Amino acid sequence: MNLVKFQGALLAGTLLAGAAHAADVTLTIESWRNDDLTVWQQTLIPAFEAKNPGIKVVFAPTAPAEYNAILNSKLDAGSAGDLITCRPFDASLTLFEKGKLADLTALEAMKNFSAVAKSGWSTDDGAKTFCIPMASVIHGFIYNKDAFKEVGIEVPTTEDEFFAALDKIKADGKYIPMSMGTADQWEAATMAYQNIGPNYWKGEDGRAELIAGAAKLTDEPWVAPFRSIAKWGQYLGDGYEAQSYPDSQNLFTLGRAAIYPAGSWEIAGFKQQAGFELGAFYPPVPAAGDQCYISDHTDIALGMNAGTKHPEETKKFLDWVGSPEFAELYSNALPGFFSLSNAKIELSEPLAQEFVSWRETCKPTIRSTYQILSRGTPNLENETWNASANVIRGAETPEAAAERLQKGLASWYEPQK
Amino acid sequence: MTDIPIAGKRPFRWHIGVFLAPAVIIYTAIMILPLFATLNMALFNISADGVSQFVGLANFQTLFGDPRWSDAFWNALGNNAWFFLIHMVVQNPIGVLLAALLSSPKLRMAAFYRTAIFIPTILSFVIVGFVWKLILSPIWGIAPGLLDAVGLRWLYAPWLGQEAYALTTLALVSVWQFVGIPMMLIYAALLTIPDEILEAAEIDGVTGAQQFWKIKLPLILPSIGIISILTFVGNFNAFDLIYVAQGALAGPNFATDILGTFLYRTFFGFQLQLGDPHMGATIAAAMFGIILVGVCFYLFTIQTRLRRYQF
Q1: What ipTM was assigned to the predicted interfaces of this complex?
Q2: Cβ distance of A242 and B270 shorter than 8 Å
Q3: Which domains, ranges and CATH numbers included, belong to chain A?
Q4: What whole-number distance in Å separates Cα of residue B230 and Cα of residue B282?
Q5: Does the distance separating the beta carbons of A186 and B158 come in below 8 Å?
Q6: What's the rounded Cα separation, in Å, for the pair A10 and A213?
Q7: How do residues B54-76 score in pLDDT, each as one tens digit?
Q8: Chain A residue at shortest CA distance from B157
Q9: Which residues on B lie below 8 Å from A408 (Cβ)?
Q10: What is residue B95's DSSP assignment?
Q11: What are phi and psi of A139, to 5 degrees?
């Protein structure tokens, strides 16, 4: 008798719990950012849930290297979460074309984002957008303020001042002028060529011309940045040819180098490691008075699984992700990853604030090789790694490198033929 | 009486099949089938409208005919040949030398040396690649300091970052790692040489180095042949060390690109470059062909001419 009662109580309890559960909708976020787990669990999700009772959100990241493969198989099997963190450009575009990601063009929050911000997750013609942009990374130079004071140099704003400063640091001899290596190759392309390049090819204008076929990689605006980085070799540390990315980071944070060609994702790590004051300056312009351009590269976005069972709640969450409130929370929780929203945000981290303030004076663009131009073989992005490293090492002249890239691009890209 | 077989009509010997089955099934499933699937894949490609279709040998035509592909392929093959050459002229002679020293009865602590030299072989590529990168690093490495200590600092260069030296450096790292294998095989071969033969040689006045060249070396030649072919197959399938030390782009400027890294980049893609399984399979098929030709050459021209001695 007692047993029956107990079972009955258990059953009733289960039913009640089930009923209470049914009222709540649980949304799951697929992501590769397992580094951000605590930020989502402790800051972002509670902020959303407080305002939207009845919706529970679970952040379920996988390892970055496996994310694309796992996501694809989950989407095919129909077991993927409601919200999908979107890689920029072709990886997500393919998912959208296959009908795995929902069209979000009509989403209310989309109006908070510029066309450049949306470019990473829009169709080639820009007509449809399928992920709500979350964050970008900005390129520039981080410098050791103490070293600048010691050597007695000011922050350079033009290319000439930049090289004059490097010369002075080199002559002083206490610091390695600039910390970068060519061993991993991508630093040469990303932190050198794509960092200073937009100033020469005029950001978005140049990038659009290249995609349209109106400009060639052998044109002056595209060769000039190669010519500039060809001079970098002499300012890098001894044996920079075999210096890897972590080597460069450590050289700088140990205070042995004065300038570090950077991406804003370094901010959090550098703040922790460096025992000196950090400053930042945007890529120096070719001549005084020139308009400055920065690489404000779209990196991460959030989309909706087309097969979700809760489209309404998911859209509600996405609208919130596009809101100024999210922008401020996210950018402050992850210094160095900047919200792409048009809303003006205040960052408490001064170095991050410095980076994001450049958006007001300089025109943002994205890395030139990422959209459309790296779809074929040879792959323009990978070739640019190799070419940039060669140019810095002096193994290839800027002109020859540009010529080779152009030939490779023209071999498969119609508008460049 | 029924279980006595009638002469000339032996029952089918099932146990042979049963004993062979595990090896045959596993080997077929994980080696032979994938091999043929890869060769088959090399004959297909994705057409413009995204359908997989039979293209015959068109992929091979692209690989060898299109300068973009063929340049990369010949570069990788040339580098691979150099990688193999270094192993043949450095690793194997050193292996033989070490084995000869180890088998000398006068050597003390032979077991210690044997173990110490063999240990790198069982280390993972990741560890070996990383440790050597650190040793040779211009910033934190001990190589510049060590050379400085003996007054040879000028000899130091960031070898792994220089086109002229990177591949040779990595080949020597690989030699360091694997020299234990030829050493062990030759050592085992030397131990099988009967003492009577060596004693007879000594009575005839053949001793020391002369004994090695005239008596021992001819007797271990078959082992050296086997080691050579193992080195050949291993080197032309190599990938790990280059990938760990230099990344999939095998820098600087593809100076360390070997067939394995070229295949990896093509098959699985890299960064923004999407994987191309069909061209990847084509490269894999070419690698298979190269190894097949090499092994056949060895089997039919060298192995058959090696003289064997029975004791």
Answers
A1: 0.81
A2: no
A3: 2-133+299-346 (3.40.190.10), 138-296+367-416 (3.40.190.10)
A4: 24
A5: no
A6: 70
A7: 998 999 999 999 988 999 999 99
A8: A239
A9: 68
A10: H
A11: -95, 155
